[in-house]
Structures are given as C-alpha cells and as structure tokens.
Write a structure and sequence with these properties.
The chain has about 170 residues and is mainly alpha-helical. It contains eight helices and no strands.
Length: about 170
C-alpha cells in the first residue's frame, strides 16, 4: 500500500481517535464534539450509519482510547511520534497528492470489501481465526521483535509499491 494511501486513512483515523475520549453514549452528542474539519471528513460515512451503527462506532473509539491509555509510556510516545510524522507528511502533500491518496484509499477499501463479499462463511471464519492467531503471536513477541517485524513489513510494502509504480 502506498504511503499516501496510508496517510489518507491515518489522517481521518487520527482525527476520530483524538475526539473519541470525549465520546458520550449519545452518538449525536459525540458528533457535536467533533471539530468542523473532523465532521467534514466523516460526514458521508456518519450519515450513512444507522443509530445502532453510530453507537457501535462511538464504542469502538472509546475502546481504542482505553487500549491506548493502557499502553506503556514508551509505546504511547512511539505512537504519538508516528502520528506526528504522518500529520507532517499529509500536510506537506499537494492538494493533487491528497486527492490521489484519498482515491487510492477508497479503491483499496472497495477491493478489500469485494474480496470479503466473495468469500464463503467458512473462508471468512478461517480468515478471522488466522488473524486472531497471528495477532496473538505478535502480542507475545518482545517490543524489539515487534519493531523488527514492522520494519520488515515496511520494506516489503515499499518494494511492492516500487514494483507496481513501474
């Protein structure tokens, strides 16, 4: 996945997560706590959700915030630094690069959804089980081992991006 694609997703997610700590049980009250910029970024998605989906989304953001707060100060600092780097990268992009990043993100999302929709229930269950096992194995690794995995993944993604851009 291109860095610009990740930046588009990250920019919206960062805005959502920063306001999640203020989320209240009423999704409409939550919506009112968002800045105009965050509302603009989320409007189409938010308006397409049922009240139950909005409530689930708010709860998910609260859970993410709680998970972040349960991390060690070092891990929180690492995540904050990463977010800041992503913000700076996004801010340095031209409007055309941002548009392309958003378009790439939407296309990737549509591709993933199409793949998911094409899977049988058994395939979906197997995939979810594999993901949970993989995540558990990652959680059991030391921070250094996790960092090495992350670096290796970034190198593979860069190589894929380079191959697809030629």
């Amino acid at each position: 996945m291109k860095v610009s694609t990740l930046l588009a997703a990250g920019a919206v997610a960062l805005g959502m997560l920063s306001f999640a700590a203020q989320a209240q049980d009423d999704p409409q009250k939550f919506w009112q706590t968002l800045s105009p910029e965050a509302q603009a970024a989320l409007r189409d998605q938010w308006e397409g959700m049922s009240p139950e989906e909005q409530q689930d989304w708010v709860q998910h953001q609260k859970d993410r915030r709680a998970a972040f707060e349960s991390m060690s100060p070092e891990e929180q600092a690492r995540i904050k630094n990463h977010r800041e780097q992503r913000r700076e990268e996004w801010a340095s992009m031209s409007p055309e690069e941002r548009e392309q990043s958003i378009a790439d993100y939407k296309q990737k999302k549509a591709d993933v959804q199409a793949r998911w929709d094409s899977m049988s229930d058994a395939e979906k269950d197997a995939w979810l089980q594999h993901r949970e096992e993989r995540n558990e194995a990652i959680r059991e690794k030391t921070p250094e081992e996790r960092q090495q995995l992350k670096e290796n993944l970034e190198k593979r993604k860069e190589a894929q991006d380079h191959a697809t851009s030629q």
